[in-house]
# Entry
Amino acid sequence: MQSSYRQRIIPWLILTMIISYILYSSNLLLLTNRKRDCSTTVHLDAATHEQLEMIGTGNLSTATSSIIENTVLKETKTKTSKKVKEEEEQQEQDEEELSIDELSQRQDTEAKHIVFGIAASSTLWDIRKEYIKVWWKPNETRGVVWLDQRVNTQSNEGLPEVRISGDTTRFKYSNVQGTRSALRISRVVTETLKLGMEDVRWFMMGDDDTVFMVDNVVRVLSKYDHTQFYYVGSSSESHVQNIHFSYAMAYGGGGFAISYPLAKELAKMQDRCIQRYPALYGSDDRMQACMAELGVPLTKEAGFHQYDVYGDLLGLLGAHPVAPLVSLHHLDVVQPIFPKMNRVQSLRHLMKSVKQDSSSIIQQSICYDKKRYWSISVSWGYVIQVLRGVLSPRELEMPTRTFLNWYRRADYTAYAFNTRPVTKHPCQKAFLFYMNRTRYDPVKKQIVGTYSRYKSKPPYCRWKMDSPEDIDTIVVSKRPDPLRWQRSPRRDCCRVQPTRKGKTMYIWVGNCREGEVSELILKGGS
# Structure
């Protein structure tokens, strides 16, 4: 009796459980539809509802398992797709930020974007035009020479266009020490702007006795945003000159650059500005006065050189600051930079090295011959100085006073930088090796420069040590480094190479290795 009762109740229990599960599942679906905003909700589509209807056919476990697997699979795919999308968006954002950072360096300025305005004098034109020929690149550089009077010119001379400056008789000038030519020269940038040249980013002002390193002009100006107001140049080497005029003034002989938007603003007000300063001496102080009215300060670059000095530039060029050489000036009042050559020949000779690696021209390297206890200072492309004994880099990077100040006095307090005296000790006299020739080795991808000793008779030395007088030639190897100024400023290192040739020294110049220092550790010392 009990056995038959159990047989009848078991199907009813199973049916009750099935109905209860269906009701529970339906209630869950209702709750799900009401709470779509919950992050843990599983969203079921029409196909899932059809699978739930299969429960009544007895395929409960199979249908439920299929529902769960499909739901989990879809949720996983959704999360994966969302994660991939977020990663792609983050990557695009990172690439966009990198692109903006790269553009901020503005390495896209080229020589064609720079227009040179050259202030010249008709009385000195036949001499000064030879300086312009040294650096001017026909069909590459753009610019105009502004003269006070017409001169004879030839179309095949390799010179920029020549124009006559506008009339300045309406402007007041009362400085008794200067000349009225300062008025017309101060308007060179404005007059060049009014020519309406296209695709101009910068105006570069200079004199007819200024020699520019065009590639380095481009490198320096590429650091700045040409769409903003910039007034780029440098002060004088003479402390007295800077006190008399201004440390905030860019000296026109050394050259200065003005961005195109600033030149446009200057042109609007310059004539009014000039009238307010009749007592000023020159053109560059008038320009600085107008910059002050516009509120634009001088952005200093150490490679612009006014060279308000007399004598020999060896001390200055042999210890050039760690900055690209941009310009040389006052070449008529200093000695030729290479011995046994005139001024123009010297500059042409220097340009042979400039063509090989303009970014490294006259950059100093310091090293030591550890066997012979010599100190070596390389001014690449120009001169090598070899001295007996050990001079620290702190001393060697300081220019020796081979020159006089602008007032022809040997006064070390007259300069706007540190200098050191030319040694009087006969054993510490520098032996000079000037660049003789240079060539590029395409196999080794190196520039090979030969430097020959300037054979002046050295004074007698009592020191019992090897003399640099025994060396006739120094061969310097170096790889071109056109991107060096896109890195942080640092002197190159140099290394004396072993050789069996007694009369020749070999030196390598290049980027410093990790941990490399310009030092010579003496025996028993530190």
Summary: The CA atoms of residues 222 and 279 lie 36 Å apart. The two ends are 112 Å apart (CA to CA). DSSP finds 13 helices and 19 strands in the chain. The chain has a mean pLDDT of 86.
